[in-house]
Amino acid sequence: MANISLNRKRAKLKQVLGIRARFALLAVILVAPLMLERIRSLEDARAKQIAQATTEFTTVARHSADAQREVISSVETILKSEAFIRASAGGVSKSCDVLRASLPASLPWIRTLLIAGQDGRIQCSTNNMYVGLDLSDRPYFQQAQETGRFVLSDFLLSKPSQTPTVMAVYPVSALSGTSDAVVLATVNLDWMSKIMNNLGGRSGISAVLVDSAGTVLAAPADQSSSVGRPLDNLPLMSAIADMALRSDQDEGSLSFIAVDGSRRAVSYIRIAGTNARLIASIDEDKVSAAVNRDIRTAYLQLAFVVVFVLLGALIAAEKLVIKPIEMLADMAKRFGEGDLSARAARNRLPAEFVPLARAFNAMAAQLGQRERELIASNDRLTVMASIDMLSGLANRRGFQSRLDFEWMRAQQYDNDLSLLMIDVDHFKLFNDTYGHLEGDSCLTRLGETLSGIAADTMGFAARYGGEEFCLLLPNTDLARAIEIGETVRAAVLRLCLPHITSSHMIVTVSIGVAAARPSEALRPGDLIEAADAALYAAKHRGRNTVVEHGLVQDSEGAAEIAMAG
Fold it and tell me: Catalytic pick from 467, 486, 556, 560?
């Protein structure tokens, strides 16, 4: 009985004077007050350094925004001068001669000056490759004619030269009262980026100039890869893209935690007379890197002193502290080197370390599983990333990968999966009549239309090949898919793309619709075949129509294509 009582007292004493309790008690008594005071002073120094850097960088960003304003203002002044010449010249020929001799060499941010007629056709230009180009369908051209004011477009690629640019537009009607012409200028985005070079080359700092849609127009040389990309695709900017673009204020600032865990402060400034904004971001951790190193050093010193005191005061803790830590560190090292089977032997550890070892083993198992899942996901994403450059949609390879994925998901959750196969009617005749360039433009417009409908319906649009497109609709039954098919057909009609060789005189599409509930008896190819058969039927019914097919199973579970309507 005495031995049992003594063992119980030892167990209670071990719980009271456990490793965690002794470590915390000695650290608080001996070193915590001094080290925490040092850390507090370093934290204050970091806050002051961040505030100073933010103020300084905001001032530089404001100067850069003013420089961008001056560039836009100079472009507007040149266009007004050209508009005056056009209004007073009395003829296209004379005004064109003056135009070709009037591009100032001192304004390298203007690439080309142009004059377009009321119908949008370029009459003359300082660069002959633009002459004859039709701009009547361009939003910036239409906006300038409607408002009668200076307009600066969003980011675009110049069709003749395929160079990134923005278009500045000024209607002659603003001066003469007659809407017979519009003067335009292509703005050199490289020059606008040069203006921002004073914002580059600084660790932890990024700055971009974006248009109203959030596309990057200009950036410092060390961030030039972001030009032309949407703001919400930039890892360090996506969190504030929506707030910065929707703000009604000319200037503003905000703070947030980026996806990489860094704390960032952002300032945005509207460029006067335009919808463009200059957005500057500061990584507070990188700006205060030196102070952060001192703070980490202080924490390391605190840990070292605590461990030293513990070792001096509790020699007997060698077995209870050092050996278990070394065992766990060795296991962590093995795991870090890629040995996913590394686990902590809990039976060789003190009781205090068993929960940690159990948690580490669970974490190791989860990380191993997640790594395998991540590799598989990356493989799928690599295939799904295939894009058709003409239409902007996924190509056939990307569509097949997405179809396989949605098929498995629909089978797992017992959902419907629908597919629309869309073919441009008489497209060969369209190409023969208008040429392949207009054919490509037609496919691009159809791709844009399908992309919008896919976004509205939570679907996935792709170019299947040639003039054939497809729209995959997860969790959508046949009735709903037919409605969406009619929406696609009507949307194409609303484009009013001329097609004189068609009986409708505009571009139309034929659509085949198929829906299925995936099972072990069906395969993704059955859905494609059903939609293809429906498309074939739509063409034989006179085109510009939507025909649906369904998938059924025979008594032995084999898949068959059957007419559903």
Answer: 467
> What is the C-alpha to C-alpha distance for residues 497 and 476, in angstroms, rounded to an integer?
30
**What pLDDT is stored for residue 299 in this prediction?**
66
Cβ atoms of 187 and 165 closer than 8 Å: yes
CB 39 within 8 A of CB 295: yes
Contacts of 207 (CB under 8 A, 6+ apart): 61, 64, 196, 199, 200, 219, 220, 223, 278, 279, 280, 281
Q: Specify the pairing of strand 546-553 against strand 509-516.
A: parallel
Beta bridge partners of 183: 115, 170
Q: Using alpha carbons, select from 145, 142, 151, 134 the residue that is nearest to residue 172.
A: 145
Cα distance between residue 531 and residue 328, in whole Å: 58
* Residue that is written with structure tokens 């031995």 in the block: 3
Sign of the C-alpha dihedral computed for residues 311, 313, 318 and 321 taken in this order: negative
CA atoms lying within 13 Å on the CB side of residue 490 = 7
Which tens digit of pLDDT belongs to each residue from 109-142? Answer: 788 888 888 888 888 887 778 888 888 888 888 8
Structure tokens at 288: 């205060």
- What's this model's pTM, rounded to 2 decimal places? 0.42
Which range of 156-165, 260-269, 360-369 scores highest in mean pLDDT? It is 156-165
For 413-443, b/e burial (b = at least 16 CB within 10 A) is: eeebbbbbbbbbbbbeebbeebeeeebebbb
Which whole number is the average pLDDT over 13-19? 54
Task: Please tell me the distance from the alpha carbon of residue 438 to that of residue 431, in angstroms, as a whole number.
Answer: 7
Phi, psi of 560 (to 5 degrees): -135, 155
Our CA dihedral for 525, 531, 535, 537, rounded to 10 degrees, sits at 100
- Strands 205-210 and 181-188: what pairing? unpaired
The Cα 561–Cα 534 span in angstroms is 10
Q: pLDDT digits over 100-117, tens only? A: 666 665 567 788 888 888
Residue 247 exposure: Cα atoms within 13 Å on the Cβ side: 20
Backbone angles phi, psi at 226, to 5 degrees: -85, -15
Tell me whether residue 529 is one of the annotated catalytic residues: no
**DSSP-derived 3-state class of residue 217:** strand
User: pLDDT digits over 325-382, tens only?
Assistant: 767 677 777 766 666 666 666 666 666 667 777 777 777 777 767 777 766 666 656 5
Among 7-11, 377-381, 538-542, the range with the most confident prediction by mean pLDDT is 538-542
**Token digits of residue 414:** 């017992």
CA separation for the pair 158, 12 (Å, rounded): 80
Assigned token pair, 529: 């075949």
**What does the block give as tokens for 147?**
């408002």
**Ordered strands of the 205-210 beta sheet:** 216-218, 205-210, 277-283, 263-270, 251-257
The whole-angstrom separation of Cα 440 and Cα 127 is 24
